Amino acid sequence: MAKPVTQFICSACGSIHKKWSGRCDNCGEWNTIAEEAPLSAGPGKSLGAVKGRAMALTDLTSEETPPPRQSSGLAELDRVLGGGLVAASACLVGGDPGIGKSTLLLQAAASFARMGLKVIYVSGEEATAQVRMRAQRLGLADASVKLAAETNLRDILTTLDAERPDLAIIDSVQTMWLDTVESAPGSVSQVRAAAHELVTFAKKRGVAVMLVGHVTKDGQIAGPRVVEHMVDTVLYFEGERGHQFRILRSVKNRFGPADEIGVFEMTGAGLAEVPNPSALFLSDRDTPAPGSVVFAGIEGTRPVLVEIQALVAPSSLSQPRRAVVGWDSGRLSMILAVLEARVGISFQGLDVYLNIAGGMRISEPAADLAVAAALLSAREDAAIPPNCVVFGELSLSGALRPVSQAENRLKEARKLGFSQAIAPEGCKTGDGAGMELKAMADLTRFVGDIFGAA
After folding, report:
1. Please, are residues 14 and 225 in contact by the beta-carbon 8 Å criterion?
2. Which residues of the chain have pLDDT under 70?
3. Which residues pair with 353 in a beta bridge?
4. Do 353 and 382 contact (CB within 8 A), yes or no?
5. In 171-186, which positions are buried (b, 16+ CB within 10 angstroms) versus exposed (e)?
6. What are phi and psi of 316, to 5 degrees?
7. Which of 4, 55, 111, 200 has the fewest CB within 10 Å, making it most exposed?
8. In the Cβ-directed half-sphere of 295, how many Cα atoms lie within 13 Å?
């Protein structure tokens, strides 16, 4: 009998190594390689001569009824899920420790239960008494949610198979233990096997499953990336500890749009929905000062206005600081290079600090022009008009590229009292939402019109 071949798998990127080493050659992470037995019995194995059943094939013109959805009663959660909870779906929720994942899912469980669903909440990290105390503090004690504290996955699946709930919440998948896998809970093997068993159970029994996943120091869900491919929906719960805002972001959704966000506010009574996040992000905005620019962005299908803050100060270091919060540091370096190469404005010898107010994170390139405006405003000590919003993508040639959904951005800005907008030429703005629109072709014209002889 052939001896099973042992593999060494990196928990950060999933690459396979022949032997253990302290550093992964593929992703460069340290202390992420762990020993794991292969899933197959050994080399040379095949399916043999036994045939399987024939598959039923359909064509692209076939029509199927879309999966039914169950509303949670929380509009922000339904938005991120694509309209509601789909039966027999598997959802993975990740987030930093203490950000409010358990609070969010407990409120979601109570809300689904009040809408008539049978919900079971299984905690592998807390006792049922702790979950019950949190429910009483949040005013959810009257919801008909069944609780259990267990880590043995065999016992959990047996209970779920007997109860047949509509929704099962597992908090968290890293604490689950499968007795057929010879490794400790939280290891790559255990996480992968537990996720596979739970997703398979959801599909076979028609039970929607929500899994909580721990995250690494880089903010990615811990464990092999294959777990994210197993599930139907991957949600990240984001936010800064110093801010009361919490953002539930969809990065994968087989039943709805990805990159959709739901905004919540952390209060003493739990997470409260924020139907108008733009007003909340700008509510604490002080008197407009140099370096402050309002960006009209799009998150998923929702227009969101946020404040971009920049600070430029003389540096005493040989290499000035470049500190960024809520945006890509590489894109900041690109914009600084374009400003110097195309407009002749240098930031050499200057420390540059960039912050997205409210703990928001922005990834779309439409924020390039707003960031450039904030940097120039801080450097020249000239404030942008308080009733003006800015958006546009910046190319390496210094030209401004049109962005999508410009009309929706302008409508949202108009709704919040803004009357001016600076945008690239060629944007489909419709009637401009009744705003005074300044269309710019390139960065040189923008600098000349807004900041004069900068």
Report:
1. yes
2. 1-5, 37-49, 217-219, 222-224, 241-242, 284, 286, 432-433, 453-454
3. 311, 323
4. no
5. bbbbbbbbeebebebb
6. -100, 5
7. 55
8. 34
Establish whether 98 is an annotated binding residue. Answer: yes
Fold for domain 69-275? Rossmann fold (3.40.50)
Q: 252, exposed or middle or buried, with CB in 10 Å at 0-12, 13-18, 19+?
A: middle
- Is-contact 351 315, C-beta < 8 A? yes
Is 187 known as a binding-site position?
no
Token readout for 79 is 């938005």
Distances (CA, A) of 408 to 318, 411, 427: 44, 5, 11
Instruction: Provide the residue ranges of all domains of the chain, joining segments of one domain with +.
Output: 1-39, 69-275, 280-451
Pair 211, 170: CB distance under 8 Å: yes
85: burial class by Cβ within 10 Å (0-12, 13-18, 19+)?
buried
102 is in an annotated binding site: yes
Taking the C-alpha atoms of residue 224 and residue 27, their distance in angstroms, rounded to an integer, is: 13
Burial of residue 194 (number of CB atoms within 10 Å: 0-12, 13-18, 19+): buried
| Token pair listed for 364 | 């779309």
How many CA atoms within 13 Å lie on the side-chain side of 130? Answer: 9
Global model pTM greater than 0.85: no
Q: Is 384 annotated as a binding residue?
A: no
pLDDT digits (tens, 9 = 90+) for 59-100: 888 787 777 899 998 999 999 999 999 999 999 999 888 888
Q: Give me 257's structure tokens.
A: 């749009």
Q: Which residues contact 282 (CB under 8 A, 6 or more apart)?
A: 294, 305, 306, 307, 416
Tokens of 238: 């984001």
280-451 sits in which CATH class?
alpha beta
For 355-401, the pLDDT digits (tens) are: 998 778 898 999 999 999 999 999 999 999 889 999 999 999 999 99
* 95 marked ligand binding residue: yes
Residue 251, both tokens = 């990065």
